[in-house]
Amino acid sequence: MRVWFMMFGLLGLGLQAFTQHKLEITLADIQVVKGSVRLALYSTPEDFMKKHKAVREVAVTGNTVTVVFENLEAGEYAISCYHDVNNNKKLDSNFIGIPREPYGFSNNARGTFGPPGFEDARFTVPGTMQITIRLK
């Protein structure tokens, strides 16, 4: 009898390791209803703002937009996003590199002179969850 409980316990742990989760992101404070929003999902500090784990692009049809990442493993992630108002597939900036299009990060993190670090934007996905990012 005890062996059965142990086997079911181990089976449960094994299945939990393969459980996939959904992350729903609401982008708020969209001022111009045109173009698209682009989001990048990062899973390590080394990859942050360099190599994304997944990316999404969604047309802007209102003042808020919802974007979903599915089949995520539980773990730590960070999001960067921007509103590509003119749909030229890049974040437009001025001559010194300051963004001219709205952008945001998970935890609504802000950097001093440039983007925030992974630690500031980091959040944990323990299961299916929802977050909101306010574009600036």
CATH topology assignment:
Immunoglobulin-like
For the biggest sheet, the summary is: 5 strands, antiparallel
- Helix proportion range: 10-25%
Number of domains: 1
Percentage of β-strand residues: 35-45%
Based on DSSP secondary structure assignment, what is the total number of beta strands?
Answer: 8
- Give the termini separation: 60 Å
The number of helices is 2
- Name the overall outline: globular
Structural class: mainly beta
What is the H/E order? HEEEEEEHEE
Average pLDDT score: 90
Question: Uncertain runs with pLDDT below 50, 5 residues or more?
Answer: 3-11
Would you state the CATH class?
Answer: Mainly Beta
In short:
The protein is mainly β.
Layout of helices and strands:
Elements: H1 2-17, E1 21-28, E2 36-42, E3 54-59, E4 65-72, E5 75-84, E6 103-105, H2 118-121, E7 123-125, E8 129-134
Parallel strand pairs: 1-8
Antiparallel strand pairs: 1-4, 2-3, 2-5, 5-6, 5-7
Can you describe this structure?
- 15% of the residues lie in helices and 38% in strands.
- The model is unreliable at 3-11 (pLDDT under 50).
- The termini are far apart.
- It is built from two helices and eight strands, in the order αββββββαββ.
- The strands form two sheets. Strands 2, 3, 5, 6 and 7 form a five-stranded antiparallel beta sheet that branches. The protein has a three-stranded mixed beta sheet with strand order 4-1-8, with no helix packed on it.
- With 136 residues, it is mainly β.
- The chain has one domain (21-134): Immunoglobulin-like (Sandwich).
